[in-house]
Design goal:
- The complex is a heterodimer.
- By secondary structure, chain A is an alpha/beta fold.
- Chain A is globular.
- Helices cover 28% and strands 28% of the residues of chain A.
- In chain A, the strands form 2 sheets. A 6-stranded mixed sheet of chain A has the order 6-7-8-3-9-10, sandwiched between helices. In chain A, strands 2-1-4-5 form a 4-stranded antiparallel sheet, covered by helices on one side.
- Chain A is built from 6 helices and 10 strands; from the N terminus they run E-E-E-H-E-E-H-E-H-H-H-E-H-E-E-E.
- In chain A, helix 5 packs parallel to helix 6.
- By secondary structure, chain B is an alpha+beta fold.
- Chain B contains 22 helices and 21 strands.
- In chain B, the strands form 4 sheets. Chain B has a 6-stranded mixed β-barrel with strand order 3-4-9-6-8-7.
- The two termini of chain B are 33 Å apart.
- About 1% of the residues of chain B have low confidence.
- The chains are: A alpha/beta, B alpha+beta.
- At the A-B interface, helix 2 and helix 3 of A face helix 13, helix 19 and helix 22 of B.
């Protein structure tokens, strides 16, 4: 199976001199195609920094990140924009929907600029929102908003789906529905998915669990079998 | 109100620092408003105070009573009229001067000085040299502006053609007179100091030349306080009627004073229009900036209240911010206004010759301007401050719901937008319709302000074109001292360089209809004439009717007559006939008020042969020097007006002054545009930062992302353009109307036509567009520098 990401010696520091902060301290990592991976760690462990660099939102201080053959660490800002545009789907803790666009339009926002998109309605159906197409974010619950965000992320049929604490702002029942949507997408479209969380329970839904601590990978494990999201409780 | 050491005060100053760019933009707009108010009010104050002091100190007459000829003994009867404190007689005449270095004949008004030197009324301010010595027939003093413009030095002599007699006069001094603060040649609007001057010489020699020894042709009086001017005028008219008088008038009709009054009225118009625009815009900007601040500080407000800060503390805090923010603008405005006022008073000194004109606004002008500004600032911030005060602590600490876009108005936009970013723009605009409208209104005001201001030049150009291009097309007007037989035309036509000669007849008269009475001339027009034609304000030719008179609208209004009515004309010249003249038509005429009659008809009415008062000449430019030389030596010519020179000097004067005013107003309009666009864009950016960052994260390119923000601005600017043009046209029309009818109802000096050029509108659009584009570029760099990660980590 081909590697989607190959990360070598990835380092990220903020500040300088005595005030220097090491967010990442030489991370090595490979993620294979179609994997559902969960990055587990406490807050401040560096997992979001890694995700941001993988997603082309941030740049590394040292080390290399290859996305297939594309060296992300060598890309300038415009090249990173193109990379995000073509290949990456994002889901964030606070949804980041455009308040002035309906659910369908939020998705269409992406399908308009994607090369091989799903139909927006189809993407929303995948996350169980076929009945809420023409609602504005202000008319949707938090869970529904997050599912729109997932539909928006997968509608371009990205090669990777990066989710940063997608359930962080949601209660357990709603969070489960959101994770189910991510699981469904991973299964149905085969999209490589990385989910960041500090919630250990969520790790059970993954093929692979990467434990993060103090800017380094503290451990990795493969689940023998992925636990269906519907069985997760926290 | 603001405790210096409290934490809230610290917050206040830090907020102010954080908002410094927006605060600065608002402060500039406030400064423009305050500056205009201080300048205009201060200038009105200074002009009025200066005029009053000048008139008082130099004893400007209250009433002028011109007449033909009266023996000096009549003055005793004048002095006997109740309510007159001082009365003085004098003699005066028009003259033509041959000034070395000036080819064209120079027109002059020559006034007599009494034997004791200084007259008791309309005393002179000696600026250099001395007054003529008693008994010297050849000495004269001249108005200072004329001496400077004509490059006359003390001791210079020049030939004066006075009542058909040539005399050599020597300049012994220069003076100013309260009677000639604004020295405008007869029948014209702007001073022409090089070609029109005022001279004073000893009475005895002047009277001898005018055949007025022991007689006078004008009486002037000053009234005792509390005296009815109208009553004194009535009695003077009765008394002087047998001597060719009967047309006494007060200061309100004295030409120089009228121009000063007119100028003050125009300044008042400026104060009425401009400062309110600026303060209105400033209030709007404050409103949007504070509203946004309150939005972003919901949690802070909740926290303050949770800690026990009272409602009024919160209100005080945000109102304090607004006030602090405007203080800079007010101080800047006061400084700017004072500076502009000083510049303006320097400019005025070129037209209005006061012995002193110092710009003194007075503390109350500053206080009132500050008070009005504070009111505008508080009004502008009231909504936001109230919202801050009303936020319940718990509600304030919860994040606000995502803005609601489900309204019906907003839904309309979904059908309009071709793609999602366009829909974002349209919905953003429609969700806050009031703010969008106010932004458009602010920009439209700026554009309108520029257009109205710049079009003043167009209007005056149009007036020049109407008067000198369509109506008054002669190169030279020659007036005779007294009406002559038409045969004089032959002499004129034989002068060197004269291509065409057309005669005119004009006579002074009192026009009476019911209780209304106006001193106005009757002038002639010839059907088919080429050099002088009767036209209306639209430039349409009006042929003189075969009977009766055409009146200007203003004269008709003053007399309250219309076509078909009869006006009684008491001619104040010659045999002084009294004529009943039917009004055949009323036209809007560009200059002055007038009654025009076909020349042959006028001759018949005056029971005279084919008499003429002068002629219009079309001449060959190459032979002008020879023609001028010949005219200077033609005895029956009392006055020569050369229009080639007049139009040029008029254009120069206007270009110079309008240039300065337009420059100021262009700057002010740009200030508003930058203030409005910058603040709107900053607020929009703040509100949309998350959306824009999300777009960038989702793979939208920088230009695509900036499109959402700048597209919104572009729509607002585009929407403002037609409105701004309409507003500019309206404002220009209003100002021309106000300027033409300003003052005391006697501002019948001229009617400014409305003549806006398309290029002026285009310039306005370009200037507003450029100011908006530059501001947008500045904002765009901020869109490019959005912090993507932070935007995603923060809650809405």
């Amino acid at each position: 199976m081909a590697a989607v990401y190959r990360v070598e010696g990835l380092t990220k520091t903020y500040g300088s001199g005595a005030g220097i902060v090491h967010a990442l301290r030489g991370v090595d990592l490979t993620i294979e195609e179609g994997t559902m991976a969960v990055l587990l760690g406490s807050s401040g462990s560096g997992k979001s920094t890694l995700l941001n660099i993988l997603g082309g939102l941030d740049t590394a201080t040292a080390g290399q990140v290859l996305f297939y053959d594309l060296d992300l660490t060598a890309c300038n800002e415009d090249q990173l924009t193109e990379y995000r545009r073509q290949s990456v789907g994002f889901v964030f803790q606070f949804y980041n929907l455009i308040a002035s666009l309906t659910a369908r339009e939020n998705v269409a926002l992406i399908t308009e600029i994607a090369e091989n998109p799903l139909d927006p309605a189809e993407a929303l159906r995948l996350v169980g929102l076929e009945a809420r197409l023409d609602h504005f974010p202000s008319q949707l619950s938090g869970g529904e908003q997050q599912r729109v965000a997932i539909a928006r992320a997968i509608a371009k049929q990205p090669r990777v789906l990066l989710c940063d604490e997608p359930t962080g702002a949601l209660d357990s029942a709603t969070g489960t529905r959101v994770l189910a949507a991510i699981e469904e997408v991973n299964k149905a479209l085969g999209t490589t998915s990385l989910v960041i969380t500090h919630n250990a329970v969520i790790a059970d839904m993954a093929d692979e669990v990467i434990l993060f601590g103090d800017g380094q990978i503290a451990g990795r494990r493969r689940n023998k079998a992925r636990k269906p999201v519907t069985e997760l409780r926290w | 109100m603001i405790a210096p050491h409290s934490m809230l005060t610290r917050k206040l100053f830090r907020d102010l620092w954080r908002l410094r760019a927006q605060s600065f933009a608002i402060a500039l707009v406030i400064a423009a408003g305050v500056g205009m108010a201080v300048m205009s009010f201060g200038m009105i104050r200074s002009l009025e105070a200066t005029r009053e002091a000048y008139y008082d100190r130099y004893r400007f007459a209250d009433i002028f009573a011109p007449l033909k000829r009266a023996p000096e003994s009549v003055m005793a009867e004048v002095r006997a009229i109740d309510g007159i404190s001082v009365a003085e007689s004098r003699v005066s005449a028009g003259a033509i001067l041959d000034i070395p270095g000036i080819v064209e004949p120079v027109a002059a008004r020559v006034l007599a000085l009494p034997p004791e030197g200084q007259p008791s009324l309309n005393r002179l301010v000696l600026r250099s040299g001395r007054l003529p010595e008693p008994g010297r027939p050849d000495e004269a003093v001249a108005s200072e502006a004329f001496a400077v413009a004509a490059r006359l030095a003390l001791g210079d002599t020049f030939t004066t053609l006075l009542y058909g007699k040539q005399v050599e006069l020597r300049l012994v001094g220069t003076v100013l007179s309260p009677e000639y603060v604004y020295a405008v040649p007869p029948g014209q609007l702007f001073p022409d100091n090089r070609r029109f001057g005022i001279l004073w010489m000893n009475r005895e020699p002047l009277a001898a030349m005018l055949d007025l020894t022991d007689a006078f042709d004008e009486a002037m009086v000053r009234l005792e306080p509390g005296t009815s001017e109208a009553e004194v005028i009535r009695r003077l008219d009765l008394l002087l009627e047998p001597y060719g008088g009967g047309g006494a008038y007060g200061r309100d009709e004295q030409i120089s004073n009228r121009f000063v009054t007119n100028e003050i009225s125009q300044l008042r118009t400026t104060v009425e229009i401009l400062p309110p625009i600026f303060l209105g815009v400033a209030a709007f900007l404050l409103n949007i900036v504070l509203a946004r601040l309150v939005d972003t500080e919901r949690e802070v407000i909740g926290l303050m209240k949770a800690f026990g800060y009272r409602r009024r503390d919160v209100m005080r805090h945000y109102a304090g911010l607004a006030l602090l923010l405007s203080t800079g603008g007010m101080v800047l405005g006061a400084v700017l206004g004072t500076w502009l006022g000083r510049e303006l008073s320097t400019l005025y000194q070129r037209f209005f010759t006061f012995p002193f004109l110092e710009f003194r606004a007075g503390v109350d002008v500053y206080l009132v301007s500050a008070g009005v500004t504070l009111a505008a600032v508080l009004a502008g911030s009231a909504l936001a401050v109230r919202r801050a005060a009303r936020l319940a602590p718990a509600e304030a600490m919860r994040p606000p719901l995502p803005p609601d876009f489900s309204g019906r108005l907003v839904a309309v936009a979904s059908r309009l937008g071709p793609d999602e970013p366009t829909r974002m723009i349209l919905r953003g605009l429609l969700r806050r319709p009031l703010r969008s409208c106010l932004t458009v209104a602010g920009l439209a005001l700026a554009l309108g302000l520029y257009i109205a201001s710049a079009s003043a030049t167009d209007n005056v150009e149009r007036m020049i074109d109407l008067i000198f291009g369509k109506s008054q097309r002669a190169d030279i007007i020659v007036s005779f001292a007294e009406a002559r037989d038409e045969g004089a035309l032959y002499s004129l036509s034989r002068l060197p360089g004269v291509i065409r000669v057309e005669p005119f007849r004009a006579t002074a008269a009192r026009l009476i209809a019911a209780q209304h009475e106006e001193r106005e001339g009757l002038s002639s027009a010839d059907a088919g004439a080429n050099l002088r034609r009767l036209i209306d304000i639209n430039g349409a030719l009006v042929e003189p009717p075969p009977a009766g008179a055409i009146l200007s609208r203003r004269l008709a209004e003053q007399l309250e007559v219309g076509p078909g009515d009869i006006v009684r004309a008491e001619v104040t010249e010659g045999d002084r006939p009294v004529l009943d003249i039917p009004v055949m038509g009323v036209i809007e005429s560009p200059i002055g008020s007038s009654a025009t009659i076909d020349r042959a008809v006028l001759n018949r009415l005056l029971i005279e042969g084919r008499s003429i008062s002068g002629a219009y000449l079309l001449v060959d430019d190459n032979q002008l020097p020879a023609l001028y030389a010949a005219l200077k030596g033609t005895p029956f010519v009392a006055n020569v007006t050369s229009f080639a020179a007049t139009v040029q000097s008029l254009r120069d004067t206007i270009a110079q002054n309008m240039g300065i005013v337009t420059m100021f107003n262009t700057g002010f309009a740009c200030l508003i545009v930058v203030g409005v666009v910058y603040n709107s864009a900053r607020i929009s950016l703040a509100e949309r930062a998350r959306d824009l960052a999300s777009l960038r994260v989702l793979g939208f390119r920088r230009a695509e992302t900036a499109f959402v923000l700048l597209g919104e601005l572009a729509i607002l600017v585009l929407a403002s353009l037609p409105l701004g043009i309409l507003f500019g046209i309206g404002l220009s029309r209003y100002i021309t109307q106000r300027y033409s009818t300003a003052g005391d109802g006697h501002a019948d000096l001229y009617t400014i036509p409305f003549g806006m050029n398309a290029s002026t509108m285009a310039d306005g659009v370009l200037i507003v567009g450029a100011a908006a584009a530059i501001t947008a570029l500045v904002i765009r760099t901020r869109v490019d520098r959005l912090d993507l990660i932070r935007a995603l980590k923060t809650r809405e």
